[in-house]
Write a structure and sequence with these properties.
With 610 residues, the chain is of the alpha+beta class. The protein folds into 3 domains: 91 residues, Roll (Pdz3 Domain), CATH 2.30.42; 241 residues, 2-enoyl-CoA Hydratase, Chain A, domain 1 (Alpha-Beta Complex); 99 residues, Sandwich (Immunoglobulin-like), CATH 2.60.40. Helix content is 30%, strand content 26%. The strands form 6 sheets. Strands 1, 2, 14, 15, 18 and 19 form a 6-stranded mixed sheet that branches. Strand 11 and strand 12 form a beta hairpin. Helix 1 crosses helix 2, helix 4 crosses helix 5 and helix 10 runs parallel beside helix 11. The radius of gyration is 28 Å and the shape is globular.
């Protein structure tokens, strides 16, 4: 799964039992064998018999990966592996084979790492052996620290080829300094034409390149060259937020559950509340689509923001030991209607969080069935920096005693993304082994529910379901809204629950960029080459704070991407003075028919961060 991150807690192996085996800073046969002996005592379901089977399969695969040529007959070797009575004998047989192969460059460390990795990954989908170097990469990914460009993008071409549309730019991205902006289409990277690259190939160019990068981008009817882009160390932001309307509806996207998420989200909500001035947050749409999880502790702490108190989840290990994890502090966001949007990319900590808030009656779940991963992983550190084993320690359960493991979280109101099922079927036909859900893994683990008596602590979920039972959802959408029907319909549901009117929305999120020159950017789907033949478009921009108008200007609309220079304007002076904050933006588009002179008016109001 793309961007999939595993829940983990850290457990350190006791060093003393290994001390007599570890003679140096490399893996040895004794340590590998002892590792296999320990795992069935820790894993949530693993037995010694299963571990021996996986170790033998891992040995076979390791043997196949060795380029033994004709020096050694493989069949006798396979017989030795098949009949090895202990892990130690199994490891010794591989060692002897390896040392007796005359044409191989001998590196027992690599042999043992391969053997461990091949064996452990067979236990379940999330078990793995990490060398010290790739553990660092894994933890950096978990924590969101990496070296990159700080942009999110997706492929626009067929078969996942370019050009690549820029969806989001992180605040600390070096691309901002060079002038890249949201909705740019990257059509060339260095000397490579993006239409000839898959998304994976595009990513590999960025990851492997040293020095500066150059983009050629299409922005409306302009083609621009952006050069001198440098990779730098980035802290991956987990939270994106914006106002759906200027009267209190908030959209929050959480990309992963990290250890610092609670702080980030609390700070973000504090800023949003501050920017609403005298009014308050009237409704929240929380988007967890594609959120593969992260830290279980972060899920508990984040749930604590929305619950006054109560059980969030409990875990159960192989011995039946149950550990309850609860919200212990009065919640800061317990009253505003809350909708959580999920899909098959919502996994692990996302499912803990969503399922708990559903069980408590605090949130309404919408979207599509989640991924179905309810296993907790631990990191078992081997002595003397010889590696780390990631192993499944327990299952987690919802307050009601149900588990998302293989079942997923079922939304209260299903909103399917058009074309998704057709795409899934097409991909499955091409590759039957593709993984869309946890249950697609051949070695996925099963967990039974734990019967419990549990009563919801909030009435919102039940009342929301009752209110929405007879609601007829609209069928007409703007071109902008059609880009993400799940999000559009989730917003409609939130508006219904908060008593706000539903109108076609033709505008994307508004961005204020301060470098390389101050400007405003927003997309609008009213202008198309076809509509421009029949109509002229005039746009009014009005910038204001809670007390007064700051700046007002007009401009002709040509293209979907509206970029307004704000250099040497009262708004630039306002931003410099305030340094950090927001302003209200009111946009009015006047569409005048060239033939009849009739004028149609489209308005949009939002709040813009800077």
């Amino acid at each position: 799964m793309k961007l999939f991150r595993t829940l983990f807690l850290v457990l350190i192996f006791f060093i003393l039992p290994f001390s007599s085996f570890a003679k140096n800073d490399a893996l040895n046969c004794d340590l590998v064998a002892l590792c296999f002996e320990v795992l069935p005592k820790i894993h949530v379901t693993l037995t010694p018999e299963q571990m021996m089977e996986y170790a033998q399969e891992g040995a076979f695969e390791t043997l196949e990966n060795l380029d033994l040529k004709d020096e050694i007959e493989k069949e006798p070797v396979k017989n030795i592996i098949q009949t090895a009575p202990t892990y130690k004998a199994l490891c010794n047989s591989l060692t002897q084979i390896y040392q007796n192969a005359p044409t191989l460059e001998k590196d027992l460390q690599i042999l043992y790492e391969t053997f461990l990795s091949e064996s452990i990954q067979r236990i379940d989908p999330h078990a793995a052996y990490h060398t010290p170097s790739n553990l660092k990469d894994f933890l950096n990914q978990m924590n969101g620290d990496f070296k990159g460009l700080g942009i999110a993008y997706h492929a626009l071409g067929e078969n996942n080829h370019g050009p690549f549309h820029v969806n989001y730019i992180f605040p600390n991205s070096s691309t901002l300094e060079r002038g890249l902006q949201v909705d740019d289409m990257i059509i060339k990277i260095n000397d490579k034409v993006c239409s000839e690259l898959t998304l994976f190939e595009f990513q590999k160019i960025i990851q492997a390149h040293s020095g500066s990068l150059s983009f050629r981008v299409q922005r409306g009817d302009q083609t621009l060259e952006i050069s001198g882009i440098l990779k730098k160390e980035l802290a991956y932001p987990r939270v994106h937020s914006q106002f759906i309307t200027s009267n209190g509806l908030v959209y929050i996207q959480i990309l992963s559950f990290s250890e610092t998420l609670h702080t980030e989200l609390a700070r973000e909500m504090s800023l949003l509340k501050k920017e609403l001035y005298p009014s308050d947050i009237r409704g929240i749409l929380l988007d967890l689509r594609g959120n593969g999880g992260g830290s279980l502790n972060a899920a508990i702490e984040t749930a604590d923001l929305f619950l006054d108190q109560g059980l969030v989840t409990f875990t159960k290990d192989r011995n039946g030991n149950i550990k309850e994890l609860s919200a212990d502090h009065p919640g800061e966001l317990t009253s505003a209607p809350l909708i959580i949007l999920i899909n098959n990319g919502s996994a692990s900590a996302s499912e803990v969080f969503t399922g708990a808030l559903q069980d408590h009656g605090r949130a309404l779940g919408v979207g599509s069935l989640s991924y179905g991963k309810a296993t907790v992983q631990q990191l078992l550190t081997l002595p003397r920096n010889t590696g780390t084993v990631r192993i499944t320690y327990s299952f987690y359960y919802l307050p009601s005693g149900q588990t998302p493991q293989l079942n997923g979280i079922l939304p209260d109101i299903e909103i399917e993304q058009p074309g998704l099922q057709e795409m899934v079927e097409k991909v499955r036909n091409q590759n039957p082994d593709v993984i869309f859900y946890e249950k697609d893994y051949k070695n996925a683990l099963h967990a039974d529910p734990v019967p419990r008596n549990f009563e919801p602590t909030y009435q919102f979920r039940e009342l929301a379901k009752q209110r929405l039972t007879s609601v007829q959802m609209r069928e007409e959408f703007s071109e902008f809204e059609k880009q993400d029907i799940q999000l559009t319909q989730a917003i409609d549901l939130l508006k219904i629950l908060t008593g706000q009117s539903i109108e076609l929305n033709h505008f994307g999120k508004a961005y204020y960029y301060s470098s390389p020159y101050p400007r405003l950017h927003i997309t609008c789907d009213l202008w198309t080459p076809e509509s421009a033949k029949e109509n002229a478009f005039l746009t009014e921009f009005k910038f204001r704070n809670e007390n007064q108008e700051i700046y007002k200007t007009y401009g002709f609309m040509v293209g979907r991407e509206l970029t307004l220079s704000l250099e040497d304007t009262p708004l630039q002076k306002y931003v410099k003075k305030m340094r950090q904050g927001s302003f209200f933006l009111d946009i009015t588009v006047y569409q005048k028919s060239k033939s009849s002179g009739e004028i149609r008016t489209y308005t949009h109001s939002t709040i813009v961060h800077f």
